[in-house]
């Protein structure tokens, strides 16, 4: 789902 997609992006940005 889009929510999961953006949630994954958010996690990726936080880990940078």
Description:
It is a single chain. This protein has 16 residues and is mainly α. 88% of the residues lie in helices and 0% in strands. The chain is built from 1 helix and no strands. The longest helix is centred in the middle third of the chain and has 14 residues. It is rod-shaped. The model has no long low-confidence stretch (mean pLDDT 96).
Short précis:
Helices cover 88% and strands 0% of the residues. The protein has 16 residues and is mainly alpha-helical.
The SSE string, one letter per element, is: H
Query: Which residues form runs of ≥5 with pLDDT under 50?
Result: none
Number of helices: 1
User: How far is the first residue's CA from the last residue's CA?
Assistant: 23 Å
- According to DSSP, the number of beta strands is 0
Main β sheet profile: none
Shape type: rod-shaped
Helix/strand-derived category reads mainly alpha
Beta-strand proportion: under 5%
Mean of all residue-level pLDDT scores: 96
Rg calculated over all Cα atoms: 7 Å
Percent helix? over 70%
Oligomer: single chain
Quick tags:
about 90% helix; about 0% strand; rod-shaped
Protein topology:
Layout: H1 2-15
